[in-house]
Write a structure and sequence with these properties.
338 residues; alpha/beta; Rossmann fold; 6-stranded parallel sheet; two-stranded parallel sheet; 36% helix; globular
Length: 338
């Protein structure tokens, strides 16, 4: 069970690798909110996703009945939330293992009382398997799988948009759930313009349907032709299709959000921009990546997840991140990948 959010669901994929290796014939189900299912549903070990459709008592009750009907023998609670706790009484005689989200340690990091960073979320998830005698390999693979249908979709999309196989493609994700995790739109516009000028690349803009206006605003501030401003996928393509298209990108630039984890899981080299959060909280991208952040800013991190506004009013964690800094990280990342 892991009900939210997008990045957290995606990071559960290695747990399924561990279960499949230990019990190849097991039936494995994954309970999550319907909107996040594409981040996990095509893992080859899964028998089925049990989606929670919407909110409200009746939707949750139907979800509980579907879980109870499979008569599980083992349940892994990768959320440790009120919702996952409510499921437990409906699990019958199933053995329940709950992961330690290290909530206290993360809050102590915010309070500047603790210095030892929190374990990466993937490591915390995999520790749930240890009572079963399942230990991770030295090299932990993190992959977000897509269906064969969506692999074909990538080719069709590239042909329709006239993106050649040798064309460098860069993904950008300027949104995030919390405002203090969002780099400024005008800086994304300048960075994107420079990327096109430097690499003659195709830009793919990723985000939720709600973030489409933000992306359009950024594109309108860019220099160059309409074609050079890239393709806005937000609101035009499904999450499943967007996840597939992340696999078409050589590089992804985004804020500390679920999209950076999806990009990493699709094999992208990632440049992640940190504002109010830090890597010490355990949500760093797993694969090859570079981080851009304001070092030695004593107010960081100011919250384990993010805030709607800077509590001190100066927002230096993002204001001091210049386009030159992010562009430098991109250039270093491109050099390493070639």
């Amino acid at each position: 069970m892991r009900y939210s959010s997008l990045g957290d669901v995606a990071l559960a994929n290695p747990v399924l690798d561990g279960l499949r290796a230990a019990s190849p014939d097991a039936q494995i189900y994954f309970a999550t909110k319907k909107q996040y299912a594409p981040a996990i549903q095509h893992h080859p070990a899964l028998t089925k996703v049990i989606p929670l459709n919407g909110s409200g008592f009746f939707n949750f009750w139907g979800h509980l009945q579907e879980i109870r009907a499979i008569k599980p023998t083992l349940a892994l609670d990768l959320h440790d939330s009120w919702r996952s706790h409510l499921v437990s009484p409906f699990l019958g005689k199933a053995k329940v293992l709950v992961y330690d989200k290290e909530a206290i340690r993360r809050r102590l990091l915010v309070k500047k009382i603790a210095r030892e960073p929190s374990l990466h979320t993937i490591h915390k998830y995999l520790r749930v398997l240890e009572p079963l005698g399942i230990r991770p390999h030295l090299k932990i693979n993190f992959e977000v799988h897509v269906s064969k249908k969506n692999q074909s979709f990538i080719r069709e999309f590239s042909e329709r948009r006239k993106i050649s196989p040798t064309q460098m493609t860069i993904g950008l994700g300027p949104g995030a759930r919390w405002k203090t995790k969002q780099w400024m739109p005008e800086r994304y516009a300048e960075l994107a313009t420079r990327l096109v000028e430097d690499y003659r690349c195709t830009l793919l803009w990723f985000g939720s349907p709600d973030e489409a206006p933000l992306i359009r605003k950024i594109q309108n501030r860019m220099r160059g032709t309409v074609l050079e401003r890239g393709i806005c996928l937000a609101g035009e393509y499904s999450l499943e299709q967007s996840i597939a298209l992340l696999g078409r990108c050589e590089l992804f630039v985004g804020n500390d959000s679920g999209l950076t984890h999806l990009a990493s899981g699709r094999g992208c080299r990632v440049v992640v921009i940190y504002g109010s959060t830090t890597t010490s909280l355990g949500f760093e991208p797993w694969g090859p990546h570079s981080t851009v952040e304001v070092a030695n800013l004593p107010c960081r991190p100011c919250h384990p997840l993010g805030r709607n506004s800077c509590p001190l009013g100066h927002f230096k964690c993002m204001q001091d991140l210049t386009v030159d800094l992010v562009e430098g990280a991109v250039k270093r990342s491109v050099r390493r990948s070639r």
